[in-house]
Amino acid sequence: MAMTFHERDFMEGTLGTQAVDWEGRIDTQRLREERKQRALERLQETDLGAMLLLSDPNIRYVTGLAMTGGSGADHYTLLTEEGDVVHWDTADHTSNQRANCPWLQDIRYACPGLGNVPRASGSDSARRFLISTMVETVTTAMDEYGVADEKLGLDVGNSGLVSGFEGAGVEVDVSTCNAVMEDARKIKTEDEIECLRMVAAICEAGFQKITETAKPGMRENEVWGEAVGELWRHGAFVGGGYLTSGPNTWPKHQANTTDRMIRPGDLVYADMYNIGYLGYRSCYYRTFAMGEPTQAQQDAYETARDNLYDVLERIEPGATTDEIAQGFPDMDGEHADFYDADDHWQMTTNHWAHGLGLQLYEVPLIWRGLSPDHPIEIEEGMTMAVETQEPADRQGVRVEEMVVVRENGVEILSQWPVEEITTIDY
């Protein structure tokens, strides 16, 4: 493949995972400050006086807190047009955050008005109490910070919550809030990019563990378990991912990793998706052959790899997603006859590129199912994963790269060899 992509400078690349005083690494204070500033600047361009964030990635983007789920709306954050931040959380989390997060000055106890708590209550009156109390916690803070008479942005369109605020005399705007956060998050800062580079390196440690572990007679879940242990060892958050083999590789198995035994001649692929480092999520496929791959397997891999790199060559600032999507296979290349499919929108997850950040899917999305009729422009600093697949003798290969858009094209953050299928000798 004679292709030209962005090349890193001398000594530029993944550094160590520990904190040191002798080298500039990921600067977590700068990471927090720059993210909050991006959100604040975009908020100030609107007519909103404040935003209430309930989406975990949005909360983490503004606060730096490790949002890992919960019982539903038991944490939420207010960002005002003056840059003030109020965060509400569970009792234990609040106590911990007050002790360990000095960059946040106002942390309060949350009332879970949405999600599991009201659902489990079994009582309409309880649900009304929870919503009204949650609204009261926010409106009280809005009054204290001088934005009680301003329009409030919400990043979720829950009708009960919207009605609750409107009943309290607060004008609510969901679409503007979501547009603010989408615009802030789509271009990554230097430290965000380094987090994605780091998680790619951690995924490669997982791939290496697979090459050392997988052999005939091992079950898919045993091999994946070894890989997951390696990911955790490097400080990753493992929120997804899987490994499949043989006939489970094409079409993808509904249960992802199973207890199937790996056999000689099998293709094996691992999808390191939703592996997190400081919250930043991976999506990174590689394919392995148990023994020397057959010619059909090699041919399929070459097709999938070439399709992938055709798309990568098209990605640059100013390019539009409809143009780039033409690098992905047409309906024949999608093997639509096998799926009995008529339109690209029916081929979700087979061939596309999607943004990466604090969520697995962020802006942009490049896909023949949407991009031709709904294009957006690619911008420098966007980060994404690009993935392709191809069947091979009742099995299949998949390959994926993690990239960042640079001035002169993409920089490939993933570094596991891609020219050929990785062969596992046993």
TrEMBL record:
Residue ranges constituting the Creatinase N-terminal domain according to the UniProt record: 35-156
One term of GO molecular function: aminopeptidase activity
Domain Peptidase M24: 194-407
InterPro entries linked: Creatin/AminoP/Spt16_N, Creatinase/aminopeptidase-like, Creatinase_N, Pept_M24, Peptidase_M24B
Database matches in Gene3D superfamilies: Creatinase/methionine aminopeptidase superfamily, Creatinase/prolidase N-terminal domain
First and last residue of the signal peptide: none
One Pfam family here: Peptidase_M24
Key words, A-Z: Aminopeptidase, Hydrolase, Protease
Protein name (Swiss-Prot/TrEMBL): Xaa-Pro aminopeptidase
Organism field: Halovivax ruber (strain DSM 18193 / JCM 13892 / XH-70)
